[in-house]
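PROTOCOL LOG
Step 1. Enter all chains and additional molecules of the complex.
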Amino acid sequence: MNNTTQAEMEIEPGIETNTDFEVSSLDEMCINESTLHHPWWFNLKYLFTGILFGIILVKSEVISWFRIQEMFHLASFHMYGVIGSAVVTGMISVFIIKKFNIKTIYGEKIEFHPKKMNKGQIYGGLIFGFGWALTGACPGPLFAQIGTGALVVIVTLLSAILGTWVFGLLREELPR
Amino acid sequence: MIEFLKQPWPWYVAGPMIGLTVPLLLIIGNKRLGVSSSLRHICAACAPLKIPFFNYDWKKEAWNLFFVGGILAGGFIAATFLMNGQPINIDPHLVSEYSAYGIHDLHSSVPAELFNWHQLLTARGLIMIIGGGFMVGFGTRYAGGCTSGHSIMGLSNLQLPSLIATICFMAGGFMMSNLLLPFILKL
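Step 2. Run joint prediction.
Step 3. Record the structure below.
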């Protein structure tokens, strides 16, 4: 009995102190609010997932500047096939997870956050589209391209980090 | 097997594998696929200053930095062990179009003639490498996600804002690639 109470008291502060909701309201898509606390090496599983993801990005040629131009010239089905089948696979997976209430390996409920509509998706989307066609890379492929040895892309990545920083600086002034 | 892996993977193999990253990340730790957030976390870690957008506990999102570190390592592994050294097999019309701009090398993920250290000092290189990178970082954060966060994760979760974002990504890309890029490549 005593042990249970202690354990509960240890979990409780973790939940109480998790008041970092502002981050979520700024950007829901990629922010996680798990109340579980793990040692840092638990993150290694994301490193391995990233390695797998990076290998697939290279081998599917979606990191290729040429494939991106081909896509924007409607000159090949390849990119549409990759993105389309990825989306369909993702949709089916999310549907199954919701339908059967599948939990994480730690028994947590899997959470989805609805995305709020704003003008950023239009203005930001167009700006990103310009950058995508110029660099031949979205953020994931930037990292993969550097890995393949295109070292000048480090400059592209640094510039992308600067772009993110400038967005953060100007955020309040931009139409939303 | 290794010979098979060394060839480019067809879309119907690679696409579903990319899609399966979505449930994998959800199940191993309730994480939603997204890459561009990592750029924000790097800003928050390195230069948050007094900007509210960067003042949060980025260490809680460290998983994302491990993930992108993995993508970089994955790129290295694929390039080192899983390549057959063949040039990319793209549409011949594009090959001739780009060779008119001096782009002949189809072996690298980015055209070697455009993306190199010397080009950084030219107007063309400045626009494409530094300008393009800036727009990728600024635009993805403004849009609240990139191809992975919006187009794959967001569409998988049937989010209308993600569909709008994806349409705008494509619209911007079509405009740049067809209308503006030919002039930039001539510089």
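Step 4. Note key features.
The mean pLDDT of chain B is 95.
The first helix of chain B runs from residue 2 to 6.
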